[in-house]
Amino acid sequence: MYNFLALLSGLAISVMVSINGSLSQRLGVFWATVIVHAVGTVFALLVCKGKKAGIPGKIFHPLWIYAGGAVGVMTVVFNNFAYGHISMTSIIALGLLGQTAASLVIDSFGFFGMEKCPFRKSVFAGLAFSIIGIIIMLDHSVTTGVLAVIFSLFSGITVVLSRTINARLAQQIGEMQSSFVNHLAGLIVSAFTALLFAGITPAYTLDLSGTRPWMYMGGMLGVMAVYLCNIIVPALPAFRLTLLTFVAQVFTGIIIDLFFMNTYSKTTFTGGLIVAFAMALNLMMEKRQN
């Protein structure tokens, strides 16, 4: 069940990214991030009210368990700075590399209170094919944009950190409540950033004209993605979760491109197939070892 939920979260993330991308083209990245987190905050609060799941007034320790939303905003910022300097395929591949590295470290050492998962042969085989898939997805643009490469790697790392931190908070206050806190923290950080840029650049103002109602649904999907991750993270090794969500994101993205843009990236498709094989190999070897 958890493997299926991981795939479902990857699907939700891919659709969310596509919707948020459309909103960003209209409003700019920072204002779009504010809107996404505002919608997500309201939606998560309404769901909590509907489930009669209250938000605890008590502050739990350590305090860093409340930082998931702020770390998530960093992911958006890193991707924003990388965009346009290296190809989108390279950003995806390097993001996966960052996620893979962070996942293996968390699994091996049990950071953030997660269960330790020693580095086994099954992980090594999956890692080897994942790296091959990543290399295939890279192109010559990475040789000319060193800072963009670094930002893309860090975007992958922050994805894993954010979902792990949110899951720790969920263990204290509940999965949906954690999703609410995640979006509220992200709203505060992104609003401060957007207002800062608006102060520096007078032309950088919020203009909602030209947006469509469906462009505001990304925040709702974000709430569900965080909610699913809060359930999955304690149950699956971080490395397996990374592979499952990545495969779902890649192939959902390809379907979206085919239906709405009548195109797709052959390189991304090939790399995705290899990572999917790595995931299947990892699962089969884990079953044999268990």
TrEMBL record:
Keyword line: Membrane, Transmembrane, Transmembrane helix
Q: Does the keyword Membrane apply?
A: yes
Name of the molecule in the record: Transporter family-2 protein
InterPro entries from the UniProt entry: YdcZ
One GO cellular component term of this record is: plasma membrane
Q: Name one Pfam family in it.
A: DMT_YdcZ
Q: Which residues cross the membrane?
A: 28-47, 59-78, 84-106, 118-138, 144-162, 183-204, 216-236, 243-261, 267-285
